[in-house]
Write a structure and sequence with these properties.
The protein is an alpha/beta fold. It has a domain at 104-239: Ribonuclease H-like superfamily/Ribonuclease H (Nucleotidyltransferase, domain 5), CATH 3.30.420.10. 42% of the residues lie in helices and 14% in strands. It is built from 8 helices and 6 strands. Strands 1, 2, 3, 4, 5 and 6 form a 6-stranded mixed β-sheet that branches. β2 (128-130) and β3 form a beta hairpin. α2 packs across α8. The chain is globular and about 60 Å long.
Length: 276
């Protein structure tokens, strides 16, 4: 790494060691046609991606001592398009689960959605309005395990029905792991999701709110996905929809959770907003 004062979002030596093997293998499989190895170290490229994800700046506003937009965005887009970002994320998820003495893949997932406003300039073709929550923008759908780790993610227009998101999330869960047999959802998801889950061999349970409860009352296990959304809100690029492509927004979730998991695995922390 080049000599510079580190940012709180930078990878430590221990955290870089967890991601370096995948990046090194990717680099070896994608040699430059000219034989050029590139001006910037891969660790610094990831530092730039993590910095932007956490602090929320535009690519052009990256600090001058990090790789510039041309280099950072090139790798961000390449890893988004070929799935390297998800590969790193999934390997870390398996490792994190095994560290907690669990099987690599979960048997239960919790599904939920979150509607977020879109910034100016985000294409109207990829946005819509959530009529129930009166939010114009996009909808982020997550399937998480009991540790709050992301198993599947998808970003669609906020106008998409919960059933649409739920069905596609279940498809992703079934595609990425054959271990899931149970899914918990809230009352926003309807019978169509339950029926689709049955076709995939997944028992979908709609967790209903107790009518006697007043105000906010955490629901057993269902609260885990709410905590996951809260953690993601620490990353300013995920507070609002800024990306033109929904796939970029999904990639940002992978990078945020990669940051979270490498910190958990190495016992390091980052500043909260109270300490910022």
């Amino acid at each position: 790494m080049s000599e510079r004062k580190p940012y709180p979002s930078d990878l430590s030596d221990e955290r870089w060691a967890l991601t370096e093997p995948v990046i090194t293998a990717w680099k070896a499989a994608h040699p430059s046609v000219t034989g050029h190895q590139g001006v910037y170290e891969m660790r610094e490229i990831i530092n730039a991606i993590l910095y932007q994800n956490r602090h929320g700046c535009q690519w052009d506003f990256l600090p001058h001592d990090l790789p510039p937009k041309g280099a950072a965005y090139y790798y961000f887009a390449a890893w988004r398009d070929d799935g390297t970002d998800q590969k790193i994320h999934d390997l870390l998820r398996w490792y994190t689960r095994e560290q907690k003495r669990r099987l690599a893949d979960p048997s239960l997932v919790v599904l939920d959605t979150q509607s977020k406003r879109a910034a100016a300039g985000v294409p109207a073709a990829t946005t819509g309005k959530d009529a129930a929550k009166r939010v114009p923008g996009r909808k982020l759908g997550l399937a998480v395990d009991v540790l709050g780790l992301v198993v599947a993610v998808m970003v669609v227009a906020a106008s998409a029905h919960e059933n649409t998101v739920g069905i596609r999330l279940l498809d992703k869960v079934a595609e990425q792991t054959g271990m899931v047999t149970k899914a918990l959802v809230d009352q926003g998801f309807k019978t169509a999701v339950v029926e689709h889950g049955a076709q995939l061999g997944i028992d979908v349970e709609i967790v209903e709110r107790n009518p006697a409860d007043k105000g906010f009352t955490p629901q057993v296990k269902r609260w885990i996905v709410e905590r996951a959304y809260g953690i993601l809100m620490m990353y300013r690029r995920l507070v609002r929809e800024y990306d033109h492509r929904p796939q970029s927004a999904e990639s940002r979730v992978y990078w945020a959770m990669t940051d979270v998991m490498t910190r958990r695995l190495t016992g390091t922390t980052t500043l909260t907003w109270r300490g910022a």
